Amino acid sequence: MDTYVIRRLAAAAGLTVAVVTVVFLLLRLVPGDVVLVMLGENEAPPDKVAAMRHALGLDRPLVVQYASWLSGTLRGDFGHSFLSGRPIGTDLAARAPRSLELTGAALLLGVTVGVPLGALAARRRGSLLDFVAGGVAIVGVTFPSFVVGSVAVLLFGLVLHWFPATGYVDFRSDPLGHLRHLVLPAATLALEIVAITMRMTRSSVLETLSQDFVRTAWAKGLGTAAVLVRHILRNSLIPVVTVIGLQAGTLLGRIVLVEYIFNWPGLSTLLLSGIYQRDYPVVQAVVLIVALAFVCINLVVDLTYGAIDPRIRLG
Amino acid sequence: MRGLVLVLAIVLVAAGVSAATPGAADLPKHGGTLIYGLSTEPPDLDPHVNSGASSGTVKMAVYDGLVKYGHGGTIVPALAERWGLVGQNQYVFHLRKGVRFHNGDPLTAEDVKFSFDRILDPKTGGQLRGPFSVIKTVEVIDPATVKVVLTQPFSPFLAYLAMPYAAIADKKVSQGGANLRSTMMGTGPFKFVSWEPGQRIRLVRNEEYWDKGRPYLDGVNFVPFADDQTRLTALRAGDIMLMDFVPQEQMNSIGRDKSLTLYADVGIFMCIIFNPQRKPYDDPRVRQAIAYAIDRDAVVKTIFDGRGTPITGDVVPKQWWAYDGAVEGKYTFNVEKAKGLLREAGYPNGVRITLLAPITYSLHTRTAQVVQASLAKAGIQAQLDLPEWAVVLKRHNEGDYGSEVRGLTAAINDPDFLSEFYQSDRTTYAKQVGFKDAQLDEWLAQARLLQNQALRKKLYAQITGRALELAPWVYIAWGDQGEAGRAYVRGYDHFPGPLGRYAGYSLAETWLAR
Question: Among A49, A270, B23, B323, which residue has the fewest nearby CB atoms (within 10 Å)?
Fold first, then answer.
């Protein structure tokens, strides 16, 4: 462990604490009261409201609420939902893996399609393939996920019936059905990653192609595949890895809409209904999880970057 | 020759079979799991708390009350096999024999007493605590008989008992520490299996259901959706088989689709609630002016896509015994009359008002927009104020609003629901809103003491006449509300008028023709 790694870890921890603290405070500044939501359209006389606030611990000073929430969370206890009374940990345990799976599938799909496509497009610059790949990239970057998702639902779900339009089934009860439900949302999320990694790989490969060592490799009489994979791709992928890391971060934002469109029961709906109903502990827990994921991804990117290029560690 | 006979025989048999098929398909068939798309994930499963229509549907499938709504919205026996009225105010209920909760516990009068006491406990937040406060005692006569003594005659009592919020829960389970907000233990047609967060609430057939032969379905999976459009897409794609709350603007296109069935009827009405403590809403003439300045036809056309009726009188539905045509046509779009009333009230140059509506529900927001445009013609400048539902609730509770657009349905199949709007001590609406009229209070109290329907009808005509004159609420239009399903879903029934949201009771009779 050197100072660079320690500094990065400390910054990541600090960022997480800052995010959850700001969210904790912001939630309490937003107008709307969970007690009134719970009472519905019934009259809410002050004594009844006060009693319910007391029962939920909302009448304690903010600092005390914050401290007790933080200490509970550190012990792995996220508390109970105000509305359903269920332990939040159970809901998170059920939903977080679903969001994670969707993100992972999208990333995997995006990279396995994007990188080879970019390398081929660079190799056959100006060909029909290059042209088509460029078109895909433009669509992927310019069209927002909810447009791509809606079109995918319409085309592959409603018209062609290739895949279920919405929903989710458990992997253990129906593995094939689970994968069929995964395809459309994962592909929707992946399109932008395909576009960006493709573009990045293409320009990086083009740059590498003109390098002296590539000419040497050709001169040695190596086959096309060997030159492309062993020499060109290996040296072109450094910036691509960085871009993939950054994409993983933005995925966490885009996934909210995509889960919504495909009714994928991940963290998004939990977060949104938590916000609408002012179910504070639920929102806090989801934000904490998302913030942690975001910070971890950035940390990994930073550390790999430093490992690849030692000059960065000095900065 | 023999070949010809054989061919003829086959043709005849085939014709016979094909002719018989439609008849056979109309007979309920057992089996299959219904996948039901809900507009929101139930926030809780507490049978006595109203946490929205979607959770109500789930609760109706698992719990039974003493009575319930049957086809056409009539009150039919459920856990009470029969009942009688002793004197004017004592109901004796005889429980059905041999009914068991889903865990095998027998249903007894103790469970009824426990459930009613739970509803009356302020800590429960029970929906029926208001109307149930007329209960003096609940007495267990023997395990199969329970007597409910009221403090006074209360004619709409059975209508309240038929609501799902009067469900009977297992005393032993509840007192054993089970959390009724996250688990369920009833006697209903389906048993609760699991609640998989965001994914589904799974119910299976109750093999021991007291209504022999029912339910027809092996189970029901309730799948929650965050978005209306997604839910409709899921229905069209066949991912779900039935859905609640069809968006109004899609009803006509669903109605035309042969592969789908639309179950809809007038159910919701849009209205404006005033804060009579504030100027200028404290003056009935201003409220009347607003009532005259609303182009109700425009609301029906644009908001309900033509599937609705303007309300020019009061909100007692036409199909009810209490409907009285005399007040019909009281408020029709009349800009001159509105301007005149404003002048009389001392606003010759028009008034500025604010119109609060929840942005969370597009029906409300869009109605507010149409109303705003219409009011402007009479010199009423309405400023829209469109926060989220949670904020609307808070502002309403604190009296921090001038006028507010709401979409509501009547709670029960009885004109006593009007007391929610006009009786000053009713905690849903009237008391919250701060409206008080001694005459209406007296008449509403009288009306529920009467058992004679003709007399009640006369009294309700007086009540609606006076209420319309005072105009603490302005009614805009009835709109269709309902569910949609795949064409092979059969036996489902959307109850008429305001009872539409209790259609969950018909899941016991729903079956799949495929």
Answer: B23
SS3 B303: coil
A85 touches chain B (CB under 8 A): yes
Q: Name the DSSP letter for residue B494.
A: P
Write out chain A residues lying below 8 Å of B393, CB-based.
Answer: 32-33, 36-37, 40-41
For B3, B103, B399, B432, B435, the CA distances from B394, given in Å and listed in that order, are 82, 40, 9, 11, 18
Q: How many Cβ atoms from other residues are within 10 Å of residue A60's Cβ?
A: 14
Q: Which ipTM did the prediction report? A: 0.84
State how far the Cα of B225 lies from the Cα of B227, in Å rounded to an integer.
6
Query: Among residues A153, A249, A155, A234, which one has the least CA distance to residue A196?
Result: A249
CA nearest to B188, candidates B172, B201, B207: B207
> Does position A147 have pLDDT exceeding 50, yes or no?
yes
Cβ contact B382:B371 at 8 Å: yes
The predicted pLDDT at position B173 comes to: 93
d(CA B336, CA B356): 25
| Dist CA A220 CA B433 (whole Å) | 89
Cβ-defined contact of B197 to A33 (cutoff 8 Å) = no
A181 CB within 8 Å of a chain B CB: no
Cα separation, B254 vs A243, whole angstroms? 45
CB B155 within 8 A of CB B450: yes
**How many angstroms away from the CA of B3 is the closest CA of chain A?**
44
* Preceding omega of B156 cis (within 30 degrees of 0): no
A95 part of contact set with chain B, CB < 8 Å: yes
Out of A219-233, B315-329, B431-445, least confident range: A219-233
User: What tokens appear for A236 in the block?
Assistant: 């072109």
Q: Which helix (H) or strand (E) holds B372?
A: helix B362-376
* B49/A39 Cα distance (integer angstroms): 9
What 8-state DSSP symbol labels residue B68? Answer: E
Structure tokens at B187: 């006697």
Helix (H) or strand (E) holding B476: strand B473-486
Q: With pLDDT > 90 as the criterion, what percentage of chain B qualifies?
A: 70
Q: Write the pLDDT tens digit of every residue in B332-343.
A: 999 999 999 999
Query: Is A24 at the interface with chain B, CB within 8 A?
Result: no
Percent of chain A scoring above 90 in pLDDT: 39
